[in-house]
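Posting for a labmate who doesn't have an account.
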Amino acid sequence: MSSTELPSVLATSVAPKVGAVRVAAGERLRSVGMPGITLTIRSRPPAREGLPSALYVHGLGGSSQNWSALMPLLDGLVDSESVDLPGFGDSPPPDDGDYSVTGHARAVIRYLDSADRGPVHLIGNSMGGAVTTRVAAVRPDLVRTLTLVSPALPEVLVQRSAVPTALLALPGVAGAFTRFTKDWSAEQRVRGVMALCYGDPTIVTPEAFRNAVEEMERRLALPYFWDAMARSARGIVNAYTLGGQHRLWRQAERVLAPTLLIYGGRDQLVSFRMAQRAARAFRDSRLLTLPDAGHVAMMEYPETVATAMRELLADTGELADADATKTDATKTDSTKTGTTKSAGS
């Protein structure tokens, strides 16, 4: 995917389809229509004028809501927006049915070009980590810093617990799984997802669990839900097998932006052992390890992730007042986390 294949387009705001989508206090949703895709954008009003822009990109099966715990903690530092990728959250499927990592990256780039928000602080989780790595590699002009939470970068030995997700990529599996699980309640499905994604599912509050069940019920009613899941899973598997300049590890080596890597010690989907390889691949990187976190550290330990991001912005000169990040209240609790270190710089 080259920058010449990704022209700027004019985005037009259209009436948001909020429906039953949850909007947390201080958030707002809007839909942005572009030729071939419509993206739902979740945002928080900037604390003041002139703040640098940040864009958050969720993983497979996720949505812009995955960032609702983290975004308020960065108020006053960045102008936060999170995107529902095509076919996820409240964004409808893309007209061309392209759910590949390249297709999702193209959607992110088209939005940033059309909104004229770049360069941004770009943050991605899981599949969104693969997507944002590709964006940073092919359009360095759009990225000030890159933060990756358990990025879905190719692994030779995939964890056994990640195999069922990968199997969704096989033709017919999503349909068979739908039939097999047709009697499962939304509560059962959410408990299964949380057991897979959280290092300790008991930290989820009753309110957060209810919200997740409501969102699961809404999304299961969408006619394209399983298709978007299956095709996106296939896109990840295909990205793992690409060679040459489109190989994700090759693109990681091309990323120029300062990069924060966050890995959880209890991650069942992205192996913790990939952390050191990633730290070596990204040329200007720092690594934060969270021994008790699972696959979604920004939802499990949002304060710790926010602290690491503040330090990244301060150390790279992206904060107007770096001293604001050095108070005792924002220091990382070393009893809960590993060390943050620079690598490859």
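Reply:
Got it, the structure tokens are right above this. The two ends are 26 Å apart (CA to CA).
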